[in-house]
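Annotators were shown the component list below and the corresponding predicted structure, then asked to write short factual statements about the assembly.
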Amino acid sequence: MNTATLEPVLRAALGERVRCDADSLAMYGRDWTRNFPVAPAAVVLPESTEEVVRLVQLARAHGFGIVPSGGRTGLSGGAVAPNGEVVLSLARMNKVLSFDPADRLVRCQAGLVTGELQAYAASQGLFYPVDFASSGSSCIGGNIATNAGGIKVIRYGLTRDWVAGLKVVTGAGEVLELNRGLVKNNTGYDFRHLFIGSEGTLGVIVEADIRLARTPPPQAVLVVGVPAFEDVLNVLAAFTGELDISAFEFFSELALQKVMARHGHARPFADPAAFYALIEVDEASSEQAMAVFERCVEQGWISDGVMSQSLTQAKTLWRLREDISESLSHETPFKNDISVRVGRIPQFLDEATRLIHRAYPEFEVVWFGHIGDGNLHLNILKPAALATDLFFERCGKVSLDLFAMIDRHGGSISAEHGVGMLKKPYLEYSRSAADIALMRGVKGLFDPDGVMNPGKLIDA
Amino acid sequence: MNTATLEPVLRAALGERVRCDADSLAMYGRDWTRNFPVAPAAVVLPESTEEVVRLVQLARAHGFGIVPSGGRTGLSGGAVAPNGEVVLSLARMNKVLSFDPADRLVRCQAGLVTGELQAYAASQGLFYPVDFASSGSSCIGGNIATNAGGIKVIRYGLTRDWVAGLKVVTGAGEVLELNRGLVKNNTGYDFRHLFIGSEGTLGVIVEADIRLARTPPPQAVLVVGVPAFEDVLNVLAAFTGELDISAFEFFSELALQKVMARHGHARPFADPAAFYALIEVDEASSEQAMAVFERCVEQGWISDGVMSQSLTQAKTLWRLREDISESLSHETPFKNDISVRVGRIPQFLDEATRLIHRAYPEFEVVWFGHIGDGNLHLNILKPAALATDLFFERCGKVSLDLFAMIDRHGGSISAEHGVGMLKKPYLEYSRSAADIALMRGVKGLFDPDGVMNPGKLIDA
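Structure shown to annotators:
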């Protein structure tokens, strides 16, 4: 639909919640992707569930699409409004509603910024453990809609694991309270888990009950150099066999060079290695971790390493890994967010590297990721001289071979960034035809008129 | 349907997998409930996914119902065949298929006994943490279909948290591989979680990828007397505020008396208390736990207590809690398996106790449960002189008031036993009408002809 048609309809029902100025349309119409058109008809910023219901009812009556929007940090175009949709921004529904200490449960609105939830947890002497580079601007509703993962998954799991209850408005305009914040509740199909990761295609998440964890003890960080990639998994097994580690991340020398150049970080130790692993452990286990480190050095798996001696130093070492994505962003990366089982990584990476060198002999390729959970980020950088369109076109073609390879290795073409528009054409590489047909059926049940985030995830 | 009609049809397609003798029908047609009719037309024991598919296709063609069946330890009638159905027993699909050490993943068939999975994990130096009284005969497929919880939920979560992948045969006869054992996989609706807890109404779980945990350090067990119920939660908060506990169970003096009388266990310490809590902690934290214990004694929350000095003694103390259910089973208990948020327990229990004393002044009422996760088991015992029918009828009437009270307190009418036939008439106390309508829609998508476990959970 277009702004001229929709604006009076929206204003009549939702008054000053509506924005149609060009700046708002441009800002609210997009996420962190840059390769999709941005053309919303309007932006609505509701302040209550009732206003969300009203907007959904209007959408059904007038046949416009709704794009739920939080912190707009998505990387798959899931919150982009490319085609006259109304952006439903949760920006004003951003409050903590209540806290239940006996159950360690926070009830909050979906627009609460992840970092603010983390801060709220800390103010209660507790801990919200899902964390990633964009947590300063992403919202909890978006985290839930994409089942966000991040850097502590190996110890704390995904967003899914911390959602004890959801309040949603379905595409039919019905309000559902899902699971009520209970630990044990065995009363039929758990639609809470259906909404987690559904990318706004079934309805709008308006509130959530989030479980908090005990505050972990202080953490120490070890960064080690690993000359041969296949030894990264030996190092992982050596550590996880003896310790409950909180993170096991990896990055290549090229990734390190990019992050040092962009952010001015110092090299962690003198001699470069082909790969690096960052391992986080309880500070109290530092000695045990050092013993594992020594054994890995003896085995020749690790060439050198450094362990943080203070919390400040631990944070500095984390920056080497956390700033990679940002350091690449100005080079127009073609991002792949993929996963295979941990045990499949060496063989997969070997094949994938060969494919990529063959396909992109002249492109810079940066690997990094959360290797402890099988999630690899593959970033292909656009040469400055190449036009963006041509670059994405070439990358898109190679993706087909890469995704077929992932499928053969039993992996996922979208580990934690979701499908959105970016991966929609390739969904068949991770889901079977029968599976996709059932997804379409479920979408039709919860969103009978197809108003919820049309064109994302699956085509109706 | 009846045996005479069905037997030739089944024999032609599935040969010696079919049993129609009276003993098999009686044995495979029921679970641990005793108050539903048992009248299957046949039993089929497939040995492969392909045979399961063949049975589902026959069911669709001939219009008979299929009741998936594992260890038959269910407590809600979910695996009872009351009306001419074919029982699909997974008893012969009971193998470990593969083990992936880097991912700590076991691929197994659904008929694998829970205790055998635990033993297999131990043989790999790992740990399968979901445990409960019936783990010696329940099967992993049934655990998944009912999202089994048990005694370690406070530390390890539910069955749901350990299922990394599922292979299912839908009611349409389609085979789906769900999630592929991946940690991170964000490619649309996670149907794995839809099947977990679906009680065989969407399809048959045939295989699962189960994640294993590191073997925990040795555990110590503390049993303490708590004179006033409301202080049980103070004791819980005192322990969870300082320690990662593995279990926090409670039982009443009457429960203790029953278990002592039936199993000959000794009283844990000399002076009886109105209530008891059983707390499990890492042995290495015993001193810290004793310090918390002392503080609780000083506060008057705990009257007395005992801590295990050996693994044998820890096991003996666990028996006081684990044998309760069995010790009541010969008294024809009317069981309620309910949950509320932990913070709601004192107020709920106060109201519930008053309701029950008013409704059943002459019945024995035994409370016990996994109080650390809000799950209470309320067992009402049949007086020897009262006819079973009349007893269940009276209990059923009071259930309506109890369930309305649970609903007011935001709880669940079935915490971990599922809905089956037992709770089906009361589902509206935990799920809204819109929610139930969507459940019915989802059922219709996965099981278009209604052949999967008809009459369980919801009516088509």
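Statements collected:
1. DSSP finds 15 helices and 18 strands in chain A.
2. The radius of gyration of chain A is 23 Å.
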